[in-house]
């Protein structure tokens, strides 16, 4: 019986999907509307390499945290009261709703936020639990000789 040729990309995607599953577990990833949890995806980015992450602009701030910041209106994109040639920044306001009320503000201060490194935690958990789940699958599909030195060959990085 001939041993089937091992597809490295298939193995990489299995590991990436496992990291995705671990990172989106309830209690690990912050949940407000569920958009961040739903946006976590895995994709193959090259031979033997995969990416797990989110395209949402605030995903990195949630994961790594961020410093305090002050938000000002962008007068170039949203001039006050329609288009004005003078684009007076003193007249510009931020507009948002709080509890059904429309609020206007010249600036908004946001406190620093501590990060919740859900991907880093998932990778640490995967390294701790090992690759027994993957080894059983590989042995069933490709045979025992594939597993020699498997632990030394697999590395997982967080960039």
Structure summary, number of beta strands: 8
The main β sheet shows up as: 2 strands, antiparallel
Q: Provide mean pLDDT, rounded.
A: 80
Order of helices and strands: HHEEHEEEEEEHHH
Strand content: 15-25%
Helical content (DSSP H or I, runs of 4+): 25-40%
Distance between the termini: 41 Å
Poorly predicted segments: none
Q: Can you tell me the overall shape? A: elongated
Strand order of the largest sheet: 1-2
Description:
Strand 1 (41-46) and strand 2 (49-53) form a beta hairpin. The strands form 4 sheets. Strands 1-2 form a two-stranded antiparallel sheet. A two-stranded antiparallel ribbon has the order 3-8. The radius of gyration is 24 Å and the shape is elongated. The longest helix is centred in the N-terminal third of the chain and has 16 residues, at 8-23. The protein is α+β, with helices and mostly antiparallel strands and 159 residues long. It has helices at 8-23, 35-39, 59-64, 118-129, 132-142, 150-153; strands at 41-46, 49-53, 65-66, 69-71, 94-98, 101-105, 108-110, 113-114. 34% of the residues lie in helices and 19% in strands. The protein has 6 helices and 8 strands. The mean pLDDT is 80. Helix 1 (8-23) packs across helix 4 (118-129).
Task: Walk me through the topology.
Layout: H1 8-23, H2 35-39, E1 41-46, E2 49-53, H3 59-64, E3 65-66, E4 69-71, E5 94-98, E6 101-105, E7 108-110, E8 113-114, H4 118-129, H5 132-142, H6 150-153
Antiparallel strand pairs: 1-2, 3-8, 4-7, 5-6
Helix pairs in contact: 1-4
